[in-house]
Amino acid sequence: MKSKKKISPQAILSLQEALSVIYWKKEDLQQFIKLTLDNPAIIGTINWTATKREIVKELLNRMTNRLDLFENELMNLTLAVTDFNDFSNLKYWDEDGSKIKRAKEAVNNLRSFTKGFIQITIEEAEAKERKAKVEQTTKKALSLEQELFELKEEFNKIAVNKNFQQRGFQFEKFLYKLFLLFDLDPKGAFKLYGEQIDGAFTFQNTDYLLEAKWATEVNRSDLATFCFKVETKFKNAAGLLISIDGVTAEAISSDFKSIIIMDGIDLFAILDNRITLPDLLFKKRRKASETGNIYVTFNSLFK
After folding, report:
1. Which CATH topology does 161-301 take?
2. Taken in order 44, 93, 54, 121, is the CA torsion positive or negative?
3. Can you tell me the distance from the alpha carbon of 97 to that of 107, in angstroms, rounded to the nearest whole number?
4. What is the 3-state secondary structure (H, E, C) of 70-100?
């Protein structure tokens, strides 16, 4: 395993020189250091009444003597100074341009001594970020799988409920949890001017009204009623009808253009983690746009 490269003594001396000359006013230097460093243990113990060079020397001595505590802070300070390119604070006191010249030379000198160190530091940071993303993705995938398993068990319990009215309310709550799991900003059931709306959600900047049916196949009259609800709302609103038992053969019509339909097979494909809810919505909506068919089964989508 390749050992982590340490910042060289020449780089420390160059950092000390650069910090001493990039600001003319001690207060500006103090502000720069405080904004760069996060550890209050090192900032709060510096004698800020001393000269700039004394302050910088004391700061770097403490950091290099306790790299076990301040190595990351030393790296952050080094990176901040190598990135320094605004020397306008020196102009007021720089009659002959020597102060700005000296500051630029000091920063360039530091860059020359830390080039390899900074590259390795960047590579290590990128590797750490990649590792964190993989861990986060893995953790999220495991969490999603567990939550889908729990939702599937909840669905199976709802399915054996003989009280159909109670089952309907349970199904609405189940769908709310499912849409929340996939960050689709769900809203619960509500009434609007006497109309009962089972729910709503937002997907790809489009607001959807949701209607959920379980007891029987949805017929043409049900679809027409739901389409009317959708089309009398916002101009760009759409509708998602979830019918566990599907729809009757004569229900589908080319007149119904504002909705798409999911059934029990679609729902189980999501709960079994064969497809995500957003991906299924996207594929169904695209198929409806391409063919005019608002009810395409899960298996048909992948033929």
Report:
1. Trna Endonuclease; Chain: A, domain 1 (3.40.1350)
2. positive
3. 16
4. HHHHHHHHHHHHHCCCCCHHHHHHCCCCHHH
DSSP labels, 228-282: HHHHTS-TT-EEEEEETT-B-TTT--TT--SEEEEEHHHHHHHHTTSS-HHHHHH
pLDDT in tens, 38-64: 887 788 888 889 999 999 999 999 999
Residue 261: strand pairing partners? 241
- CA dist., res. 143 & res. 60, Å (int): 45
Instruction: Using alpha carbons, select from 207, 203, 144, 200 the residue that is nearest to residue 176.
Output: 200
Q: Are 243 and 213 spatial neighbours (Cβ–Cβ below 8 Å)?
A: yes
Residue pair 38/73 in contact (Cβ under 8 Å)? The answer is yes
| Residue spans per domain, the chain | 9-128, 161-301
Render pLDDT for 10-29 as a digit per residue (tens, 0 to 9).
889 999 999 999 999 999 99
pTM greater than 0.70 (yes/no): no
Q: Are 248 and 217 in contact (CB under 8 A)?
A: yes
d(CA 112, CA 130): 28
> DSSP secondary-structure letter at 5?
P
Q: Are 63 and 99 in contact (CB under 8 A)?
A: no
Residues 190-227 pLDDT 10s: 554 444 567 889 898 888 999 888 877 888 888 888 88
